[in-house]
Amino acid sequence: MSHTRKRRSFMAELLIWILLLVVLPVMAFQVFFYFNSFDHMKRMEQEKAEATSRSAAKAIENLGESILGITVTNAYWADNLEAIRKRDTQWLQDNIGDMPKIVQEIDFAAEADLKGNILVQAGDVKELTTQVKYPVILERIAKEGKFFGILNTSRGLAAVAVSPVTDEEGKQPPQGMLITGRLLTGDLLKSLSSMLQTDIAILTDAGQYLSTPGGYDQDQLQPLLAQLRDNNSHNFQMDRSEGTYINRYAASLLDMSGQNVGVLHTQSPSVSATQAADDQKTLMLYLIGILAALVILVMYLLRRRIVLPLRQFTQSLQEVAAGKQIEEIPKHVLEAEAAIVQAFQQIIQWNRLLEQTVERRTAEIRNLLDHARQGFLSFGPDLTVNDEFSAECVRLFGFEPAGRSLPDLLYPDDPEENQLIRSILTDYHAEETPLAKEMIFSLLPEEVRIGKRTAKIEFVPLQGPSGIQEDFATGTSIMAILTDMTETRQLEDLMQQERRILKMVVQVVTHPEDLSSVLRDFESFHTTEMWELLASDETAQSKAASIYRLIHTFKGSFAFLQFQHIVPYLHELESGLQDRMNDPSLMTDRLTTYLRDQSMANWLEADIQQLRSILGASYDSLLTEEGIKLNKSQWSQIESVLERTLAAQEDRTWLEEFHTWRYRPAGSLFRPYAAYLTELAERTGVLLHPVVLRGGDVPVDPDRLYGFARSFVHVVRNAVVHGIEPPDERLDNGKDEYGTVSFAVERAEDEVRIVFEDDGRGIDPEALRAKAANQGMDTTGMSDEEALQLIFEERLSTSRQISEWSGRGVGLSVVKDELDQLGGRIEISTRRGRGTSFVFRIPDAAWKGEKQVGA
């Protein structure tokens, strides 16, 4: 099929080149010669028509000359001269007035004195009734004497002759003038037409129309009259009518004064022009026939000697490519040039050698591919897998993939991914720009799930017919290389699970008191506190909200200790409680049933079992506290007794020291958050410089600050989840790709400050106001400082999605509640794109008597 298209393209291209290089130049020259000759012939015909028109005009004017002799004879008459002197009108009437009756060529006559006063007239010409109305006659009689010409009279166009009246010898001074005229008629035009061999037509300004039988109609002359009246020019047309060219020439008709009085139109057939044009056309037809014959002859010879042998040659090559043997040279090739015959013989020999080599190498390559533990297959623009593939493909798919659609092989049960890879590959084949093809190619998946197996997949453009690897501009076929990664991924998952367990063990071993506290608190919560809260008088929604906040804090505490199993349970419980908080029909008994069904007592079993399996007996020692543990009430009772009984000054000094016995360095409560920041940054893809707690040796009351320190996990988590930007975003904003978080406990004269700062994206007060407004809060006139305090409002979060780390809108409200119980306050300063600073201030009264102790 491809061979046929190429063969037709070659023949078409060959024909096009012959037309472009031979036929079209010759035809163009012939057409140019024809039109150039015709234009030259037209100019010659125009000159002939113009000469004929001038001859016709002159012949009409010469009609006046034909009556000039008669006019002179009667004017050069002594009796006539004497009659004018005496004003003998009777003599003039008898001898001059009867001229139109006696002389056939004269249609009117008039005699006047030299001032133009008419003495006698015959023929009823209004312009010659009492006074000569033609100034040109008076001017020319004085200058020229006798003359003739054309005048437009009241009776029509006329040839006029004028002679002075004198004696027979012309020696006497003229006493007057004799004017005679001959009216122009159709018969006169007919005689002129016979003489000049042309049809004549005249149309005057006065509307007089004269024409020979073959002349122009009056309606046809009317536009020409208007045209020539404006410019006194001419008009020439050469048209073909009934096989013969007709020359039509129109010119202005001028009277003896040179004024335009009408249009004179002549037309005559041009046999010579017709014959010349017909000869040119005949020559062109002969030339076209000769060229067509030459083209056919050339095409026949090319087809016979070159095209057919090459076609057979190409067909034989295709047969060779298909694996067929060629034993003899076809007839068409034998009739070709000797070089083609020799090349064909050489190909037959090469084909035999190539078949043997290909068979041997194909077997070797297939053996290599089948034992490479990789699946190799290829496909074209139709995305159908070709027949060649390795044995590993059968093992991966469970069947032979040949003839199947690649998207259906990779994603048989995932319509979205199936359509996505189909669109990517379709766009790749449709795109022509190399850069765009490369970008589209990079979107192809790198790993796929085939049944229960995981396979790495690599796409590579196949080699083209020339043996050179196809680039992104020309590649059409693609090879897919599949590598079974199932065992590798299972091993990676196992290693990842072991790493997570190891992190949990390290966190537990390094923070045994936190482990003991959170386990004790969680057990107290799900066995006692939760049920006491459910039995209170609050509404069901309020109970759900209180339990919701406690669950959120427990989730943060267990996440800090890297517990793997209980955190997802707590996260799911949060979602369920959130739905019930928003349910106005929620009843306490339904909430109680829901919580009882959770079986929270079993949530810690998997994590505790992992710790026991690794730590063994050491796990129980982590939960054992040496010494005696007093609660706050018991310690306060002892302090009160000592305050009352010890009054001496030396006793007061000892009592002051006694107060510090239960204090611990602040680092014991807050230092673990430095490691938690680093771990959380790794999980969320954020880069951080190492975080160090400054002022960790400041002593604090651990019982009093336990709740605040435990809730502080929300502040730490928000810094990573909301504050620090991803590396790409930081680089785009001109920042170091590693974020900075500083954490310090400072002792002031009247207070202790816990300062937590980051150089992240900052907090947007406007976004907080908008979020609050969406939840029905009145933000009119709210300042930026007031808006920043909204982050501590319960259920107000700017996160768009709920995740394991954010989106509930609860965390910071818990921090605020704990700080309020301590009588503390919070200061926030932030700059968009620069970062945020939190300062938690604890009143000095809560720290009276504290001193520096070992960290």
From TrEMBL:
Cross-referenced PANTHER family: CHEMOTAXIS PROTEIN CHEA, SENSOR HISTIDINE KINASE CHEA
This enzyme's EC code(s): 2.7.13.3
Reaction(s) catalysed (UniProt annotation): ATP + protein L-histidine = ADP + protein N-phospho-L-histidine
Gene3D superfamilies, A to Z: 6.10.340.10, Histidine kinase-like ATPase, C-terminal domain, HPT domain
Keywords of this entry: ATP-binding, Chemotaxis, Kinase, Membrane, Nucleotide-binding, Phosphoprotein, Transferase, Transmembrane, Transmembrane helix, Two-component regulatory system
Domain HPt: 511-618
Name of the molecule in the record: histidine kinase
Transmembrane segments: 283-302
Modified residues (Phosphohistidine): H552
Domain Histidine kinase: 712-846
Enzyme class: transferase
A single GO BP: chemotaxis
GO MF: ATP binding; protein histidine kinase activity
Biological source species: Cohnella candidum
InterPro entries: Bact_Chemotaxis_CheA, CHASE4, HATPase_C_sf, HATPase_dom, His_kinase_dom, HPT_dom_sf, Sig_transdc_His_kin-like_C, Sig_transdc_His_kin_Hpt_dom
